[in-house]
Amino acid sequence: MHNSIEIDEKIFQDAVRFYGAIFNIPPLASKIYAYLLFDHERVGITFDEFVEVLSASKSSVSTSISLLLNAELIVDHNKMDERKRYFFLNDEYKKIRFEKIVQKMQDELKLLDDLNNFKKNQDEEYNERIEAYKALLNKNIINIQESLNKL
User: Fold this and answer.
1) Which of 50, 58, 56, 89 is nearest to 72 (CA)?
2) Neighbour tally for 105: CB within 10 Å
3) Which of 7, 30, 65, 130 could make a disulfide contact with 20, Cβ separation 3.0–4.6 Å?
């Protein structure tokens, strides 16, 4: 079997490092994700191609694919006339990722408000810094939500 897609080795290695760190995923899962970035025609990549191209065991590839599917980073499809599963990047993941970021910022805002309401002494300088931080969080939430609406 041969690669069904053309990749640039340097970009591939950069993507492996970047997405491994961003998504906090193991190296093989990061390689699978990075490899799928080069599937510009969206033909899909089979399990067997991952095993061959990445020189990894079937069980390791299977574990990494399961992790990526559970994290909603990739999706799979079966073609009508074949038993093989084809894997693709999840086009919706960018939206999902930023929705999670917004939720974390909103959770932090609530926690900051709860802590401030609980706090007995009022340190004016501390309160100013917290209010500036909360304003930054709110501004970023609005910017991300406006961008998400455009996706």
Assistant:
1) 89
2) 17
3) 30
Tell me the pLDDT band of 1, cut-offs 50, 70 and 90. Answer: very low
21's CB contacts (< 8 A; 6+ apart) are: none
Q: Cβ distance 45 to 4 under 8 Å?
A: yes
CA distance 48 to 147: 38
Which segments of the chain are extended strands (E)? 45-46, 74-78, 85-89
Task: Give me 149's structure tokens.
Answer: 């609406």
Give 87-106 pLDDT, tens digit per residue: 999 988 888 889 989 999 99
pTM: 0.78
At 146, the amino acid letter reads E
CB burial class (10 A; 0-12, 13-18, 19+) of residue 57?
exposed
Q: What are 97's two structure tokens?
A: 């990722």
User: In this structure, what DSSP letter does residue 4 have?
Assistant: S
Length of the chain: 151
